[in-house]
From TrEMBL:
Organism lineage string: Eukaryota, Viridiplantae, Streptophyta, Embryophyta, Tracheophyta
Signal peptide positions (record): none
Subcellular location: Membrane
Protein's membrane topology: Multi-pass membrane protein
Gene Ontology CC: membrane
Presence of keyword Chaperone: no
Entry keywords, A to Z: Membrane, Transmembrane, Transmembrane helix
Listed name of the protein: Uncharacterized protein
Similarity comment text for this entry: Belongs to the NRAMP (TC 2.A.55) family.
Region (Disordered): 469-489
TM spans (from-to): 17-32, 52-74, 94-119, 125-142, 154-174, 199-218, 238-259, 339-358, 364-384, 404-428, 440-462
Length: 509
């Protein structure tokens, strides 16, 4: 990511779109990481096609909010965490930074476990050793940035195609029931029992909070005309390229769920496979591909799992870098940031893999996905407030229909999270199998946390806006503003050059 990508003013819309392709691809990686694969596989095994509508709604919502994130970066030249630092007091920013870092770590845990499982399948490396190795192999992909952002984007896109190429042929071979398949996508339904829990985990695995910080920063890598028309045009192209990337992610997620649902609901399924379906883990899911891919199913599945983990780790590292830079004005070397994040994520992953094995690792992935779902509002609410602000966005603020749609969907997501958290935790507290003293202590700890969660969301929603100079009023053609934008983008380029030199020095040594 050594230099900005110059957008050429050409008449061909398709050729111009090629200049914008990239940020949406990197962002879509988060919707296909090992956490997604784990929750997709189990959702299909437990509910067949019933939860496909969650994927449809989740990725439709994702397109809407990711486009808001891109608009924020395009219109203001600053990413989400930088706006948070200026808008909120220091104490609130520290809370938001901690929550954002927890989100990055929660997203990294499935990637660590997925990489370990892939190495175990391919090379018979013990899972605990694979967990330790997971922090090092990503440096190879990060090293690609010295060849430019475009090369890295192409490699990431190729890795995503590997994941899709593994599951699409299997889905066609499984021949899912078309009627049930369509009803699963378009008719919302939640079965009793684990339906709500699996839906929340699936939603959490789809929409990741750190992605909102990431997208608003990645779009700054495109050098666009700094005019009202130029920004409107860039926003449209970024919306289109995000739609292409997320639609691809939607198809792959649907393929994974359909493969699991079709195989596990087959009345002729073997006893061993039926046992696996009750508790699918990333290391045991290769049995789903055996009929379609034969003896190479395990290896091909492991390669797709490795591709998923590696690509999502790269974007997670960049998200963490931008979060740290925006909230703390602190820049860390990308390889060091990667190892730090991995070290923290490796600790719980290693303990769980040693004590609980693959089943424990699978439960940890579900918990990580639920954490992401609960944390989403702390990135979403500031984003919706900033993109709806005329003071910050000027002519490019959200339209009334877009504002209504995003706020309604956002509050629905928050309501689902609060309902699930309160019912699950209260059910745990009132569980008579637990000692009375333990239930009382749990209540004293959990109830205040839920109250604090709600109070912070209310504060973020209702806090009066900090009035500042509008940085996007291009009608006045302000020279001061143009110079500020050039300075911001030069700084971004310098950051990337610094990162390039750091990676090059690490790889050469």
């Amino acid at each position: 990511m050594a230099a900005l990508v110059q957008i050429q003013e050409i008449s061909s819309s398709w050729k111009k779109l090629l200049g914008y392709l990239g940020p949406g691809i990197l962002v879509s990686v988060a919707y296909l990481d090992p956490g997604n694969l784990e929750t997709d596989l189990q959702a299909g095994a437990d509910h067949k096609y019933e939860l496909l509508w969650i994927v449809f709604v989740g990725l439709s919502f994702a397109l809407l909010i990711q486009s808001r994130s891109a608009n924020l970066g395009v219109a203001t030249g600053k990413h989400l965490s930088e706006h948070c630092k200026k808008e909120f007091p220091k104490s609130v920013n520290i809370c938001l930074w901690i929550l954002a870092e927890i989100a990055v770590l929660a997203a990294d845990i499935p990637e660590v476990i997925g990489t370990a499982f892939a190495l175990n399948i391919l090379f018979k490396i013990p899972i605990w050793s694979g967990v330790l190795l997971a922090g090092l192999n990503t440096l190879l992909l990060l090293g690609l940035q010295r060849y430019g952002i475009r090369k890295l984007e192409i490699v990431i896109a190729a890795l995503l195609l590997v994941v899709g190429g593994c599951f699409f042929p299997v889905m066609l071979h499984a021949r899912p029931n078309v009627k049930e398949f369509a009803m699963g996508i378009f008719i919302p339904k939640l079965s009793r029992g684990t339906g709500t829990r699996d839906a929340v985990a699936l939603l959490g695995a789809l929409i990741m909070p750190h992605n909102l910080f990431l997208h608003s920063a990645l779009v700054i890598s495109r050098k666009i005309p700094r005019s009202a028309d130029g920004i409107r045009s860039a926003s449209r192209y970024f919306l289109l390229e995000s739609a292409i990337a997320l639609f691809t992610a939607f198809l792959i997620n649907v393929a994974v769920i359909s493969v699991s649902g079709s195989v596990c609901s087959n009345p002729n399924i073997s006893t061993e496979s039926k046992k696996h379906c009750k508790n699918i883990t990333l290391d045991s899911a290769a049995f789903l591909l055996k009929d379609a891919l034969g003896k190479w199913s395990s290896q091909l599945y492991a390669i797709s799992l490795l591709a998923s983990g590696q690509s999502s780790t790269v974007t997670g590292t960049y998200a963490g870098q931008y979060i740290m830079q925006g909230f703390l004005d602190l820049r860390m070397k990308l390889w060091l940031r990667n190892l730090l994040t991995r070290f923290i994520a490796i600790a719980p992953s290693l303990v769980v893999c040693i004590i609980g094995g693959s089943a424990g690792a699978a439960r940890l992935i579900i918990i990580a996905s639920m954490i992401l779902s609960f944390e989403l509002p702390f990135a979403l609410i500031p984003l919706l407030r900033f993109t709806g602000s005329e003071a910050k966005m000027g002519l490019h603020k959200n339209s009334i229909p877009a504002s209504l749609a995003t706020w309604v969907l956002g509050f629905c997501s928050i309501a689902i999270n609060i309902y699930f958290a309160s019912t699950s935790l209260l059910g745990w507290i009132t569980n008579k199998k637990m000692p009375k003293a333990a239930r009382i202590l749990s209540g004293l700890l959990i109830v205040p946390l839920i109250a604090l969660y709600i109070a912070l969301l209310v504060y973020l929603t209702l806090k009066p806006e900090t009035h500042s100079h509008r940085s996007t009023d291009f009608d006045t053609d302000s020279n001061e503003h143009n110079e500020a934008q050039i300075e911001q983008r030069t700084e971004f380029s310098n950051i990337q050059r610094t990162s390039e030199i750091e990676i090059e020095s690490i790889t050469s040594s």
